[in-house]
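2024-03-11 09:14:02 DEBUG pipeline.ingest accepted 1 chain
2024-03-11 09:14:02 DEBUG pipeline.ingest length=587
2024-03-11 09:14:03 DEBUG pipeline.predict start
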Amino acid sequence: EEPKRCATKTPQTLTGHCRQLTTMDPELCSPLEDIDASRFTDLTAPLLPAHQRLYSLSRSASGREQLIEVRVDRHLEAAFAELCRRFLELESSTQQEEDEEEDEEEERQSESDASRAEPVSSHTPTKATCAVLCDRLVWFLRLFRNLCQQNATAQSHLFGPCSDSCTAGTCTSPAAPRSAAAPIPTTASTGTATATATHTPSLIAKQTQALLLHTSRRVDLRSGAAVVELHQAGLQLFVNGITGNAPVQQFCWSCWWPELLCTLTQVHEGTSFSYSAILLYNLVVNSDGRLRQVGSETTGQKLVAIYVHWLMQPASDGATDAPEFVAFLLQALMGAGCFDSLMTCLHSPAKDPSSFLNESQAALLRALHLKNPRLIEKASVPMLDAWASCGKLLRPLVDRVIAPDAAPLSSADHEGLLLTLQILGEITSVVDPTSDDDILRLSVVDPGYLNASSELLQFLTRYPTHPVVEAKRHVVRFMGNVSYRNRLVQDRLGENGGLLAVLNNCLIQDSNPFIREWAVIAIRNLCEEHEANQQVVAALRPQQLDQKTEAELAVMGMSASLDPATGKIRIKQDPHLRKPPSAATSP
């Protein structure tokens, strides 16, 4: 069980508070020594049990609340800032020494083998010190990360606006916690947060940002595991510090955009890149203004292009959540009305010059398709518009299929055509079929869309071995959904041959599973309360037998004919037809 909250007055010292917690928790019954924050900066001395106990307390909900009450961040921020300063200075000197060693190595390689000797690295002690500093900093970052976990008060303490005296490190008294809902200065024109002279990031937030800006340029193939772990710990703190806290997100956006967020994308290590995607998603997901800022500004569009390109790469170890969060980010951007601008910014010459879409645009369609409309109680107008805008791709893609002497579709066009048809089929299955406003807003009744789908279905019916023949079931599904109780669509598909094309696909096809079932539903919707389409179906009569059937009947000594009055087939024995020789007869 978690330790119960103390009913007595909160002690003024951190040591006394931790002792009080210890007496309340049976699992933390050992006495704690006095906590000296300056001991964190002594790299030659190990951390005492009292220091380690802080991390243990931060892992429980009640422990976090009581540590936040005594403002443990205020007690430790000076030591954290000092460690950050020393780490950055040592890293700078280490980088300079590594560059000098590279120059010396080049000189040694130009000498003879006899005179070549392996020198002892002059900055080995410096590297060892950096490793210890990394370990201490990771401890701090994970402690602060735990404090911010689902705790709006800690998030406001560490990442909300702070007075200049606090950021300078002079505010040491345990001030009253800022409310998570406290207003943040905003501009009247844009409504975005502004960092004024009296409201700046806290000291911990500023130092962590400096660490991330540095480690983003150091995390590469040559960096050690300690630097990678430090970078990931900083990202985890930032993600926990803003999640679910709209005022803090608004303030941090003004401090981190665009420099920090763009710098983080320079790290291609799988887990770190995943965390950066999660961070950007949490910053913008609850704000249409920030989403539109990312989708419309050149810097934001370049950032999106980087994430889309990375989304197409094979997933690396430890980055299993990254593709999902990148997809979530793209879906949020498209839900804010940025689909057209994203498709434009992702436009670049494809590998195949004849291709209409490139791989990045196909990946964007894939992200749009992953947004399951059935999980949305009421889709927003921008998202519906994004799905409808996807239909604009249908006409040029269909033309590349049905054009005379058309070249085979590129992989991006092939995938784009299938995704476009699937998206149209899905969105038309969730909008209100009886609402003309929804249908017209989606533009799916546009003659261009309906004609393109009808022409594609007729073409693929005539050429059943075409490489994109699998698209037939998606076309039939779209036709069936969009025609449900919609007179305009029923008229259009009855006139352009779409109804007859659907009738020709009421059979089982291995290349198109369930196409017969979709065709039956489509015929039902096309003919419901539509007399003209019903008459078309009723007037259908067999025209002739196919040659394959006639040949099989002839082998059996039979012939078939059509009754012109009833349209029925009559089969009879024909003595003039010779039966095949028996299989037992010798040649």
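2024-03-11 09:14:41 DEBUG pipeline.report The two ends are 92 Å apart (CA to CA).
2024-03-11 09:14:41 DEBUG pipeline.predict end
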